Amino acid sequence: MEAESILSIDATHPVLQVVLTQGTGTDIVVQEEFALEASTWWQRWFGSGTLPDNSRENQEEAPPSEQGGGGEVQEEDREGGLFPIKQLLLRLPGKAWDESLIILPPHQAINLSLKLPFSHRSSLNRIAPLEAQDRLPFPVSPFHCHARPVRKLSSELFDVQMDLYPEELISELLRTCKQWKFEPSILTIPAALAETCHGLYPKYVAQSALFVFSGETHYSIAALVEGQSVAYFTLPKTEPSADFVGKSLLNSWIASVEERLEHPLERIYFIGEEMNFQEWNREQLMRPSEVLSYEDILPTSSFLHLEDNFRSGLATLGATAVTKEETATLTPNYRTGRYLFRPELRNLAEGIGPLIKPAILLILVFAALIPLQYFAREQRIASLHDGLRAAVRQAFPDTVIPEGRELFAVRQKLSQSQETLQQLGTGGKISPDKELALLLDRLKKFKSLKLRRVNILREKTVLEGTTASYTDAEQIEGAMKKGRVYCDVSLDTGGGGRMGQQNFDLLLKKECGLS
Q1: Backbone angles phi, psi at 87, to 5 degrees
Q2: How many Cα atoms sit within 13 Å of 11 on the Cβ side?
Q3: Which of 17, 364, 409, 421 is 20 to 30 A from 205, alpha carbon to alpha carbon?
Q4: What angle do CA 404, 408, 413 make, to 5 degrees?
């Protein structure tokens, strides 16, 4: 696979972790990495654990005339708690990337398993939210809902996964990013990276297992069956003094997933630093477990220490997920439905962009040439008219011809000349084969006629033959005189023939006045 440049943003903490990587799979290089304060935005959406009250309108800044510049960058947009994309982009002046993703906190995400008698996308988009509403004690209208078929249970039943995430959060996040000409191709949560962990080491990581990722206030947990994500959920973290019930909840969830899917989960993987999972009593879990640090998963990559016990490993793992063909479509990905990411439109815009100015210049040139072509054509037509009029007047000096009627006058003269030539019996007006056909047509009504010779020449045609009587010979002479084909017709009977037959010679002249 060709190496790609990926911008990955880990937004699971109030301090964003941003990495820009180059490469594929485990062979990647972290080109840029930094931390960015986003506490106002993060606390607004994720601090209380509930959706914020956004009754007031958001005050959003206008985008700058150009990106980059010197001076100290402000740490955070504090005017409305917006995602600090402006500050993020100013930290990467002149940088470019092929794809980008944002990893969001998981505790606003909801995953439901539904059994439906169809798997077509349009039917799922229409029916699945209604089915989800019947399963939940709160309205689903504030959530962006996306249903996807996981497997076929029978000929008429499908296992469908329903992903829900606060729609207002997604809408505002994308609107803020687009104002700064940045559009993340993937919006997801840590649980989506479980497939990536298996995809990087398919011979080591179990195909059917649980993956636990640590966030600021919650654990994000995903289940894989045969390398495919089938379910995920979130567990809250507790204060040090409180009892942690995560292990019992996880055991119950394992039993539920195995019963629903009829497939055992072999192992549990804790992804990250071991100190982030100290409250877990791993000996009480239903399945054997181990901790895989980000250094274990991506040993050739560097990781920036952003704070104590806080590294950019999740962001780097996210960048690796986008470059893997088999894991490029993460589950869940909230760029679906009305928020669907359309790279073909982006690529089209990027391809057309450099051509806009030349195209406008070309259009202006053509627009300027159109009147010039029109005037040149008019001048050419006027010149042809003048030349034609002069030629006609020279050919017919004694004829008064109104302006614009020259061609009509020429046609009249040609018609008159043609009539004169026909009256003079000029040869060449009819070809020999056509003349023969004409003769045969005129003679076919004479049943007693027998032709001995037909001689068609340029200036005359000679017919020799016999007929029943002198009267018939005269009738043949009369038939030949019809029309304007021959200027003179002469009949010579030359006496009677044998057995009562009348001989005749018929001379048909086509050029009169010539011997």
Answers
A1: -65, -35
A2: 32
A3: 17
A4: 135
What the block records as the tokens of 36 is 């960015």
> Taking a C-beta distance cutoff of 8 angstroms, is the pair 25, 3 a contact?
no
Closest CA to 195 of 263, 271, 256: 271
Determine which helix (DSSP H) or strand (DSSP E) holds 371, and give its type and residue range: helix 343-395
427 Cβ neighbours under 8 A, 6+ residues apart: 458, 459, 510, 511
Q: CB burial class (10 A; 0-12, 13-18, 19+) of residue 366? A: exposed
Q: Which amino acid is at 216?
A: E
pTM, entire model: 0.63
Per-residue pLDDT tens, the chain, 515 aa: give them: 577 889 999 999 899 999 998 887 777 888 888 999 999 999 999 886 555 554 444 444 444 434 333 333 344 444 458 999 999 999 999 888 988 999 999 988 999 989 898 888 888 888 989 999 998 999 999 999 999 888 888 888 898 999 999 999 999 999 999 999 898 989 999 999 998 888 888 889 999 999 999 888 899 999 999 888 889 999 988 776 567 888 888 999 999 988 888 889 999 999 988 888 888 888 888 899 999 988 888 876 666 555 544 567 899 898 888 865 544 568 889 998 888 887 665 555 556 667 778 888 888 888 888 888 888 888 888 888 888 788 877 777 777 778 777 777 777 777 777 666 555 544 446 788 888 888 888 888 888 888 888 888 888 888 888 888 888 888 888 888 887 778 888 888 876 666 678 888 888 888 775 44
3-state secondary structure of 113: strand
C-alpha distances (whole Å) from 216 to each of 15, 173, 238, 270 are 10, 20, 11, 15
